[in-house]
Automatic annotation (TrEMBL):
Residues 1-24 form the signal peptide. Residues 30-42 have a biased composition (Low complexity). CDD domains: CuRO_1_CumA_like, CuRO_2_CopA_like_1, CuRO_3_CopA. InterPro entries: Cu-oxidase-like_N, Cu-oxidase_2nd, Cu-oxidase_C, Cu-oxidase_fam, Cu_oxidase_CS, Cu_oxidase_Cu_BS, Cupredoxin, CuRO_3_CopA. Coiled coil: none annotated. Residues 30-50 are annotated as: Disordered. GO terms for molecular function: copper ion binding; oxidoreductase activity. Keywords: Copper, Metal-binding, Oxidoreductase, Plasmid, Signal. Residues 70-173, 253-338, 393-500 form the Plastocyanin-like domain. It holds the Pfam family Cu-oxidase_3. This is Copper resistance protein A.
Length: 502
């Protein structure tokens, strides 16, 4: 890669503003540490060199105003002491992050996809006490695996307010022959639009306060109109490829790196450049179908781990999933489109390598019309394989729920209690989706190995309506670990459990 460091850093620095409160981060406010604030959550196995962090970051979670493309939104987000809240480390680095809470309620940070020690996982009531307003908390952990990750609040619906940012862990074993690299954050946005919040959406979904909005107009989307631009209830929106209803909330806006389609981001390169694109779905309720006009994409990593490269035209990315692709860029200006599955809307950006007409956001093209590829269809690269073996224990996981009343749940062997495992065991989780909706299921502190996909490593697995997925887990990280749907509204209404070591 020519001029590798400076060019890559320039691109990442400009593009990691994400679809989040990170947009306003350059005007950061760093409050002093609160009296009695904690630097850990108690005793835990300490990784090597924990006392000498290689990367230090100070963050503040706070209210802020952001511009998503000519639209100002009052929201919550992260500001940082070093400009962008995006974080970059290398495999084996120890990361130290001090987070100060300037919000009017408690918060936390979960390091999505990172296999870290229990006390740093960021789940209030399970791995730590909530970070109360005015307090500062220190997260300290090693980043053991390379890949594309992100961090976000694990408190209420704060993720859907924009409390998230990319976390990139560089892997020395990865090929370093790209000319450009872009981190691309997909998001759905309602917070601060006409005064609406994610909590308002949940209020509507659970059936409370419907009278406040008068007659409910089903609208063009078959949803329930909230009025204005503040979003609407999708009430189960069908998407044929997803085999059921695709989502619950019709967001007023869908973003790529914090911008709406009519004020889109443009990614600049040269004809013939080899680009690496790191995609993150940080949305609260939206599965995206992604394609780049005029190009086939070579998938190289899924949820951070390398896979056997395969060329595809488009792919589905559910909430919490990440995927890395490589592409040799043509000559011109090309649409980068992320369809909001089942919601008749899209996020949009442009990849430009030369002059030419900028494609319109509503542009359609063959790659976008092609059947989307699901990430569970890939096979792991040899260096990502987990040794094969028979499970020591099996648990049956049933995903349950309904729209009316709006309630979701997880049953483990028929019970609502957490699943259990012993250290060193190979646990087989047989997950069955008994509902009419897709659910991206996420495990903390571990990655699954999927026998049905040749042992593919994943921490977030999309289960379609009626689908059964078998996922193996090596119990090598003691503690109690959250296990939940990464649809923020499903998790908030009951689709969250845990895996507890005996």
């Amino acid at each position: 890669m020519t001029n590798n460091f400076s060019r890559r850093q320039l691109l990442l620095g400009g593009l990691m503003l994400a679809g989040t409160g990170a947009l306003a981060a350059c005007g950061g406010n760093n409050a002093p540490a609160a009296s009695g604030s904690s630097s850990s959550a108690g005793p835990y196995p300490t990784p090597r060199n924990l006392a000498q962090p290689a990367v230090r970051k100070k963050l503040t979670a706070r209210p802020m105003s952001i511009d998503i493309g000519g639209i100002e939104a009052q929201t919550w987000g992260y500001s940082a002491d070093t400009g962008e809240p995006a974080i970059e480390t290398t495999v084996g680095d120890v990361l130290q992050v001090d987070i100060t809470n300037d919000l009017p309620e408690s918060t936390s940070i979960h390091w999505h996809g990172i296999a870290l020690h229990h006390a740093a996982d960021g789940v209030p009531g399970m791995t730590q006490s909530p970070i109360e307003p005015g307090e500062t908390f220190r997260y300290l952990f090693e980043t053991p695996h390379g890949g594309t990750y992100f961090y976000h609040s694990h408190s209420g619906l704060q993720l859907d307010r924009g409390l998230h940012a990319p976390l990139i862990v560089r892997d020395p074993e990865d090929a370093d022959d790209q000319d450009v690299e872009w981190t691309i954050v997909l998001d759905d946005w309602v917070d601060g639009i006409d005064g609406s919040t994610p909590e308002d959406q949940l209020h509507m979904l659970t059936g409370m306060g419907m009278g406040d909005h008068g007659d409910m107009d089903m609208g063009d989307h078959g949803g329930m109109d909230m009025g204005g631009d503040g979003g609407m209830m999708a009430h189960g929106t069908p998407d044929p490829a997803l085999g059921g209803d695709a989502g619950d909330v019709m967001y007023p806006h869908y973003l790529i790196n914090g911008r709406i389609p009519r004020a889109h981001r443009t990614f600049h390169a040269r004809p013939g450049d080899k680009a690496r694109l790191r995609f993150i779905n940080a949305g609260g309720d939206t599965i995206f179908k992604v394609a780049l006009g005029g190009h086939r994409l070579t998938v190289t990593h899924v949820d951070g781990f390398p896979v056997r490269p395969r060329d595809i035209e488009s792919f589905y990315l559910s909430m919490g999933e990440r995927v890395d692709v490589e592409v040799v860029l043509g000559d011109g200006a090309f649409p980068l489109t992320a369809l909001a599955a089942g919601k008749d809307d899209r996020a949009f950006a442009v990849v430009r390598t030369s002059g030419g007409r900028v494609p319109a956001p509503e542009t359609t093209f063959p790659e976008l019309n092609a059947a989307g590829t699901f990430l569970t269809s890939f096979e792991p690269a040899d260096r990502a394989l987990v040794p094969e073996g028979k499970p020591d224990r099996e648990v049956s996981i049933d995903l349950s729920g309904q729209m009316m009343p709006y309630e979701w749940g997880i049953l483990t062997d028929g019970q609502s209690s957490p699943g259990t495992v012993r250290e060193g065991q190979r646990l087989r989780m047989i997950m069955r989706n008994r509902t009419m909706m897709p659910h991206p299921m996420h495990i903390h502190g571990h990655t699954w190995s999927l026998p049905g996909s040749g042992g593919l490593r994943k921490d977030t697995v999309l289960l379609l309506h009626g689908e059964t997925v078998i996922a193996d887990l090596i119990a090598n990280n003691p503690g109690e670990w959250a296990f939940h749907c990464h649809n923020a509204y499903h998790m908030e209404t009951g689709m969250m459990s845990s895996l507890r070591y005996e």
